[in-house]
Write a structure and sequence with these properties.
Blueprint lengths: L49 E4 L2 E3 L7 H10 L8 H15 L1 H18 L8 H17 L6 H7 L15 H5 L1 H5 L14
Antiparallel strand pairs: 1-2
Helix pairs in contact: 2-3, 2-4, 3-4
Length: 195
């Protein structure tokens, strides 16, 4: 390395950049995981203090909002995955906290953050997100309040079947760009709460 490099340190015999730690034998920064010998995550990327899962680190570029991280820590068990049941749980929490009128927007924001955080923003689907939130809100309003999500899920097992939307939407409508980016009403069977 020449000393012309913008980060070269003229006081270091090898011209190491300011990114290296002079007290570490390899000049590694303190971003590494102390429990891993090379300060790396299971993905082989440096750990930058972020989490791709509420229970473990990864080297993602988008910061997860604190409220979403706390909600995920509540609904996803350590080592677990964020699947359909967790999506329904997320909708349940949002409806309880924000009410049916605001829940769809809140969940959409959470899912967008999560998708960006997982470096997969294309996975966000506006119609699917809103439809599930509305279905959850409808079932929450239709019966006595459940003390927790497990009780709610036990009362409404069809909600845990992600194919439920196919009763209301054709695959053509759900696959359309308009449905992915905005709200589309069902084309097969209307939701009972829609006018």
């Amino acid at each position: 390395m020449t000393l012309d490099h913008p980060h070269a340190r003229p006081d270091h015999p090898h011209g190491r950049t300011d990114h290296g730690r002079p007290d570490h034998p390899h000049g590694r920064t303190d971003h590494g995981r102390p429990d891993h010998p090379h300060g790396r995550t299971d993905h082989g990327r440096p750990d930058h203090g972020r989490t791709d899962h509420p229970h473990g680190p990864a080297g993602h570029t988008a910061a997860m909002p604190a409220e979403l991280a706390a909600v995920l820590a509540e609904i996803v068990p350590p080592g677990g995955r964020f699947g359909h049941r967790e999506h329904i749980h997320l909708a349940y929490i949002a409806v309880r906290r924000y009410g049916p009128a605001q829940a769809a927007e809140v969940v959409a924001g959470w899912i967008r953050h999560l998708a960006a955080y997982q470096r997969a923003p294309q996975k966000f689907h506006a119609t699917v997100t809103r439809a599930w939130v509305e279905i959850v809100a409808h079932h929450m309003a239709a019966g006595p309040p459940a003390p927790d999500f497990a009780t709610f899920a036990d009362r409404h097992p069809p909600l845990l079947d992600k194919r439920l939307l196919t009763r209301h939407y054709s695959s053509r409508v759900l696959a359309s760009p308009a449905a992915k980016t905005g709200w589309r009403e069902p084309d097969l069977a209307r939701f009972p709460w829609l006018p």
